[in-house]
Amino acid sequence: MAAELFNLTIHEAAEKLRSKEVSSRELTQAVLDRIAAVDGKVKAFVTVTPDQALAQADEMDKVLARGEATSPLTGIPINLKDVLSTKGVRTTCSSKMLENFVPVFNATVVERLRQAGTVLVGKTNMDEFAMGSSTENSGFFTTHNPWNLDTVPGGSSGGSSASVAAGMGFLSLGSDTGGSIRQPAALTGVVGFKPTYGRVSRFGLIAFASSLDQVGPFTRDVTDCALALNTISGFDKNDSTSINLPVPDYTRGLTGDIKGMRLALPKEYFVEGVEPGVEAAIRAAVRKFEELGATVEEVSMPHTKYALSTYYIIAPSEASANLARYDGVKYGYSDKKAPNLIEGYFSTRDEGFGPEVKRRIMIGTYALSSGYYDAYYLKAQKVRTLIKSDFDKVFETFDAIISPTSPTVAFKIGEKTADPLAMYLSDIFTIPANMAGTPGVSIPGGFSDGLPVGLQILGPALGEEKILQIAYAYEQATEWHKQRPPLN
Ligand code: GLN
Fold it and tell me: How many other CB atoms are found less than 10 A from the CB of residue 47?
């Protein structure tokens, strides 16, 4: 199965493109055929763009034939979470509010991928406005986990993770505000990387919580992840929070050598609620790291327990401000039957937003309202600083932190929809890094009950290289990343 074209990694496919063993058109057709064969069951895509993709592939075949390809990504079929603006291609955020919205410009990351010569095959499903952990909050439909179609693919970037796991794209980009890249990567057995806040431009990323949002890649292995980060990282004058520092070649650290590295295992990440199968896989990973010559020591990050509640003040507060722009006048859905402007604001937002988005807007509006601001938002910002100081302290002496990405493997569709708090707990181990602004990856770390377990590696700000070095060493010493879901 791994020999199928659609299941190759980017670096394998790039080699075949260079040696003329395959063309970009063949790769693209293989992905489109795969989508036709399995997406009826997985439902990863909101929009597929076959004609554009094949035309783009033909262009890239010409570039490759002339020997003018500038990137290992040239000619590679990709897809994007439907939160990233794509010029001329519908961008919905899986919301009725933006169901027919066609952006007039590309997000910076989309433009960078286009310039690298990638072939855009479609836009993937997500929780509405990236609020959720399972894609069940999509305004359109739920995406299914290719490993077991009765379970969720994680969220909010569940369409992206499921598509890469199921061979419907060699690369996808998602966004991670509280775990939306790493958690779905974990639940579908792929690599998902959240970069340092500011490392990758947010220009053209439809905003959820601007101080937490970050764009990052989903791939089938760590090498591909490094290649994708090389392409999307770097300064952007259109994003005032983007970091103006040179981007290293992220493949440099992929040596397999991590001897002498110091890894921290926070005891707060092994608490009640972590499934025994997940804990066993992570403990086995610890032994693997020790075999590879690293030392692993338990540490304490005492403010971890406040991360979730702090996040659920800060993220909804910022969301309530960001989502004010959807008023039926400037963007997207508009209730044309409303008798006047004010009524129109109300009915447009009532009809255009789903229940989770409304919940967040209400929580956020409340937390920011006068009289409550100090008690909630300001307090949460202070606690956020304490959470960050936990990370700073650990990184004074350790190279990285390892933990489960998610306390559970993929859960059943419908299992947590009635209980928002149970759903929120899915991100308990991913949210702290967003609060600290620091980078992290989830890589395949074993299986429990036949479902993938994600191993999370967190590093200091701008520690992308180090994280990739550790992730690669583990990946090369294991076989998990070579497993493919039994879909046919
Ligand atoms: N699941 C979390 C939430 O619902 C995180 C989402 C995200 O990272 N976009 O807010």
Answer: 17
